[in-house]
């Protein structure tokens, strides 16, 4: 048997010697992260794409040298370069997207997953992880569907995969009859993409001039459709404004027309953790399928998505067989069959970081974080309304705030956003509404303070002109 190259046998993260090999490398990574953040000095690197590309090329080449430079030097160089060139969601001026700063406890838990490297495509690759996933998925599904007969959830990579699974389950439930999909104009782009991917007709998009799906408009549209299986997609937390459709009224309309309801709550579902804000999701439990992401308003490292159902029996359509992974005699002998838990085969146990976070903070602890960012968004709206040079689109529903310089044209708003990005000063998103183009601030940092919000607005006002 060939002998491993000198030193490589001590580089494995698992086994009895794994923690000893990993510990000094983790210290190197943490040091490189700190230096990279100091190099960056702000929410993102200055200079734009060309400057970032030059720095990465300088740090990364040669990527495949004839002789390696060793783990610590490689980590110091590339982790520092990555941190220097990062858009850091932990900086209160980085508010463009539903891109949260992850909790330290969740990040630490994720390290254990990488070290152990379980794969959730068969029980013999992940004995404990598969059981932890089953327990945690059921617990979260019960939060979404407290009155369901047997709530369950599947772990996904995010809202896009969850929405795709929801459409797939609806297609299979239609039992060969053509499935129609009806959505609001405010729905996530992944709905149409999933329909295309699954060979379904393009969804019918209903206008949402107020930002939410109107139940009366939906009632009229469903009444004009032929008698065929129909999936209605509602949204609880749009990506542009954070708006929440009137879920209970929409569920009533779906019941009246015998339509199936899917709710994309990738953004809004964690409001369930909050005693204050959970009432905004009244009617969520009436959906046949619900998408939620905990790497948005749940402070998890990507990826941490789920698709919840009120009855796990609805997932039977995903049953799949591969003899080397779930042989019938193994299943009959009591070995869990995992292939029906995802469309993916190799799958890391992203559930660990979620389970650790839930145990560490509890529902109320997570609810406190939700309450803080929602309150911070309201305060940001107050500050905007108090400044004559800025205009607010609307009061925030969750933690997304749209605003712009008063009277600014769309081209001016777009140029202002790019100017802030190029200078490394702030990361703001953009959102188009019937009233024009707006800057978008999505407050997801639970450490955000009033001074941070005032500083963000001062940056915008100070960069209004080139």
UniProtKB/TrEMBL annotation:
<protein>
    <submittedName>
        <fullName>L-2,4-diaminobutyrate decarboxylase</fullName>
        <ecNumber>4.1.1.86</ecNumber>
    </submittedName>
</protein>
<dbReference type="InterPro" id="IPR015422">
    <property type="entry name" value="PyrdxlP-dep_Trfase_small"/>
</dbReference>
<keyword id="KW-0663">Pyridoxal phosphate</keyword>
<keyword id="KW-0210">Decarboxylase</keyword>
<comment type="similarity">
    <text>Belongs to the group II decarboxylase family.</text>
</comment>
<dbReference type="InterPro" id="IPR015421">
    <property type="entry name" value="PyrdxlP-dep_Trfase_major"/>
</dbReference>
<dbReference type="GO" id="GO:0033983">
    <property type="term" value="F:diaminobutyrate decarboxylase activity"/>
</dbReference>
<dbReference type="InterPro" id="IPR015424">
    <property type="entry name" value="PyrdxlP-dep_Trfase"/>
</dbReference>
<keyword id="KW-0456">Lyase</keyword>
<dbReference type="InterPro" id="IPR002129">
    <property type="entry name" value="PyrdxlP-dep_de-COase"/>
</dbReference>
<dbReference type="Pfam" id="PF00282">
    <property type="entry name" value="Pyridoxal_deC"/>
</dbReference>
């Amino acid at each position: 048997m060939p002998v491993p190259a000198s030193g490589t046998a001590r580089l494995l993260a698992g086994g009895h010697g794994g923690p000893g090999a990993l510990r000094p490398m983790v210290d190197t990574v943490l040091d490189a992260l700190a230096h990279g953040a100091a190099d960056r000095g702000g929410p993102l690197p200055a200079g734009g794409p060309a400057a970032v590309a030059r720095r990465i090329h300088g740090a990364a080449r040669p990527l495949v040298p004839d002789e390696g430079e060793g783990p610590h030097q490689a980590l110091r160089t590339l982790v520092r370069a990555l941190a220097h060139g990062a858009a850091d969601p932990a900086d209160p001026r980085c508010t463009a997207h539903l891109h949260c700063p992850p909790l330290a406890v969740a990040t630490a838990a994720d390290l254990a997953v990488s070290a152990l490297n379980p794969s959730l495509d068969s029980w013999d690759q992940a004995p404990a992880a598969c059981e932890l996933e089953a327990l945690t998925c059921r617990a979260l599904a019960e939060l979404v569907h407290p009155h369901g007969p047997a709530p369950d959830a599947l772990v996904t990579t995010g809202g896009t995969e969850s929405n795709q699974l929801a459409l797939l389950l609806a297609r299979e439930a239609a039992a060969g009859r053509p499935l129609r999909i009806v959505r609001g104009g405010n729905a996530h782009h992944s709905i149409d993409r999933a329909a295309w991917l699954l060979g379904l007709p393009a969804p019918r998009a209903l206008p949402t001039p107020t930002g939410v799906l109107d139940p009366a408009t939906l009632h009229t549209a469903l009444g004009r459709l032929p008698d065929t299986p129909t999936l209605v997609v509602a949204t609880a937390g749009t990506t542009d404004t954070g708006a929440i459709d009137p879920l209970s009224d929409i569920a009533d309309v779906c019941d009246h027309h015998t339509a199936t309801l899917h709710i994309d709550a990738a953004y809004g579902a964690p409001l369930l953790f909050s005693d204050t804000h959970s009432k905004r999701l009244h009617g969520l439990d009436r959906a046949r399928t619900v998408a939620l992401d905990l790497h948005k308003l749940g402070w998890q490292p990507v990826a941490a998505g789920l698709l919840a159902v009120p009855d796990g029996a609805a997932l039977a359509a995903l049953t799949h067989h591969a003899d080397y992974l779930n042989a019938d005699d193994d299943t009959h002998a009591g070995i869990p069959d995992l292939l029906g838990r995802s469309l993916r085969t190799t799958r890391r146990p992203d559930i660990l970081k979620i389970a650790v976070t839930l145990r560490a903070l509890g529902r109320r602890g997570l609810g406190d974080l939700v309450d803080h960012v929602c309150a911070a968004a309201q305060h940001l709206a107050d500050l905007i309304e108090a400044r004559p040079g800025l205009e607010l689109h609307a009061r925030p529903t969750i933690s997304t705030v749209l605003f712009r310089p008063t009277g600014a044209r769309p081209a001016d708003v777009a140029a202002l956003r790019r100017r802030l990005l190029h200078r490394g000063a702030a990361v703001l998103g953009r959102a188009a509404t019937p009233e024009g183009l707006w800057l978008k601030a999505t407050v997801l940092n639970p450490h955000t303070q009033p001074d941070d919000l005032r500083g963000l607005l001062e940056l915008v006002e100070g960069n209004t002109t080139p």
